[in-house]
Amino acid sequence: LRNNRPKNKPFNLSYDPMTQTLDISNNPWIKIAHCLQNFPAITINASNTSISRGSNFNNSPVKSLNISNTQIVELRTLTCKNLKELNISGNIIHNIDPLEKYPLISLDISYTPIKYLNFIPKLPFLKELTVHKGQFTKTQFRWKTDNLKIIIKSF
Fold first, then answer.
1. Residue 21 burial (CB < 10 Å; 0-12/13-18/19+)?
2. Cα separation of 76 and 59, whole Å?
3. pLDDT reported for residue 43
């Protein structure tokens, strides 16, 4: 993990081999984490880091990925074929078309500049979508399917 952490600041890193959960969250100094490629974690929390590329997680068996509040601005380089849950909230991601290739069940796009829901039909397995209050107009929800639960964050 490449970072520029001040020596007096703690470094958060934990891995539970039983649940295959990796947590590197709240390390704003982490910018590059290519060592996570092929890492055997099913769940990865990399929120509140300075990671800027989805390629840091390529080829890992990850099913649940939290990359909220990072420096990631595009998802073209993300290749995690088992991905079912993705949190990209708080990022400057505009285009989520690259997600069409994943069997996503849950997606959090709150506090992103995403303004259109026309991607919903392209994610046929999506069951839960999290957005923030005011992110979309009522007419934009015409793309919502009956089996899709919309969660609206109000803070």
1. middle
2. 14
3. 97
